[in-house]
Amino acid sequence: MQTRRFPNAHTIAAAALLLAAGAVLTNWKPVSRAAEKKHLAQSVSLRKMADSLHAVIAADREIYAKEIVERLARREGVLAADAAWREKHCLPVPAQMLRMANIHIQRRGGEFSYVLRSPWPINPAQSPQTETEEQALKAVLADPDKPHYFEEELGGRSYFLAAYADRATQPSCVECHNRRSRSPRRDFKLGDVMGAVIVRIPLEF
Amino acid sequence: MLALAAAFWIGASARAAVVAGAGAPLPPIQPGPKDGFADVTARCGVDFVHRFCHRRIANILLSNGSGGAALDFDNDGLLDLYLVNWEPLKGVAPKCPARAARGNRLYRNRGDGTFEDVTARAGVAGAGYASAAAAADFDNDGFTDIYVVNIGPNILYRNRGDGTFEDVTAKAGVGDRGSGIGATWLDIDNDGLLDLYVANYLTFDPSTVSEENPGAYPGPLAYPGEADVLYRNCGNGKFEDATRRAGVYAPGQRAMGVVAFDCDRDGDADIYVCNDDTPNILWLNDGTGHFQNVAAEQGVAFNSIGEAPGSMNAAVGDADGNGLPDLYVTRLGYGSLYLRMPEGHYLDAMWKSGLGRITRKSTAWGGVLFDADNDGDPDAFTANGSAFYLDGSLSLFLENLGKARFVNAADKGGAFFRTPVNGRGAAAWDFNNDGRMDLLGTLLADRPVILENRLPAVNHWLKLKLIGTRANRNGYGALIALRAGGRVLVGQAHCPVGFLTQGDDRIHFGLGKASKADEIQIRWPGGQRQVLRNVPADQILTIHEPR
Question: Which pTM does this prediction carry?
């Protein structure tokens, strides 16, 4: 029952909307008055698409961390958040929410993906998994205030990749990462960069 | 050196031109004296050529190619070879010149390093746009039968035991008409009868165009996916469609490969399905032949970067030596090396294993885990090729240094691994029974390659051919734990199908320096246990299940 509520509908809907908008723009046949507007966009750039997807992801992530986990788990103590949320009948932690939303997008045939990466992951699967992810993480840590863009080839498939800083926006983020015995780093402070959100768009289908 | 490089470059360019015209097949590749694998296809007399009457890969179905199966159809202890081919298919593949009309082919292994074409006598030329074949003894009469998977109606050939086959598709009720791309034999309920899982791809529509790039053919998500089919063997020569009852009805998938193995070692056959741009499926068997998809929970639905790109093939083997079955999934996109953990889930070690870096540029189709050097850990072979161009790619021979750490061993492999080809199917088989696993690759628009293993024979080996009596005659589902030289190696009898192609179903163990197996424990499907002790190495041992 709980799992049905957790898929992040906002992320999925917004991403679908964004893709649909891209498709509409790509196929737009200017008519009447619009035909006179030579400046109308004909397509969406990869950077803008990735930035927009990230805006949705980051907004959802922040809202979940602030309004659900921070409020219900930390401030009001109504329901805990824990990585073993199924077994303990409580809330998934924000990193799990992000992963679950991506899985649901993949199941819907979304032709982009995103992951959370960190040099200090509690879950080892969230350490960098490609050479470009390693580079991206280094770039984000060195300059977290801007997005970083790359291209990479994996298994013969070309991708556009964008990396964005992922910060500890709530006290609950800091407390959890500093408390967990499996956490490789336990001196996080509010506002610290904890890793990166990586958005990947395939360039061939 | 420069001249050599130039010659190689010119050779590669010329090859690309030849293939692009779907003209002359790949000439024999001359092996060097120290090459670990030698192209012996011409010497073997296997003259099959994949029929491809286009100048380019013009649509998604044309990108896939065709495969075949290694099988011993005449019970002489030697693996024969069945290769399937394409016939014209409306909207996909046009009619070819008469010289190209060669159909499916059955090559009998003479045992002297050569094969003879016995297709006509055997009656297995087939009909249709064939993708793959899966061979096993479905009626437990002691002779291996063949299932041909087509884009269109599939065919079941029953082996009469006299060198001929009969088409029993209609009688058996297994002529699924979907866009078949693979199949595997397995016993879903341990009743001693092999059932059949058929993997279907997508419903092709030639009028579909690419939204992303009108010049390119549309990707898999542009077409509706098709549901796979599970046939349950009734034991009277007939099968029933058990897809829904077994819980494996899943429309909207786009299967490219299927393999059955016991992932949790609980004594029943589970099923892993590779899908194209759709999450992969792990059907977990509850022991009664009823399945549930646990791929996401167990960590094998997506790759380590959180996406579900085109998965072609899953090879089963114990890559890290912990006794549990791992999966090597090849993809157009980032592949996966899913290592089975004792806790009951998988971890994707694609990056940690070194495979991520090595395979960065390669679109991999077929892939096998096999012990090339008999040192006790599985190495890998992947058949690579572009999905869009007939320009050739290098195949990969990947050596396992132990504990699932892989390096590119192209230098050890030899000339073939420096020759660009349009690889598709991949299988491991010991066609000359010398205890060194040979390779088979099928190529798009080209001849196949039979690669004889010539790596130094410095290690011992043991090969088991299981014959079930209460269990299915192939013994598929049996679990073998072999103790030798202080190590325990675990293997499993199963139908060794990969993308389009089936390999040697005998269970091969590389024993390293151990000259005998101290103990072999077999758990047959159904639970019966058998123990053999002090078994000398370097032999092919036939083991009958105790009655």
Answer: 0.91
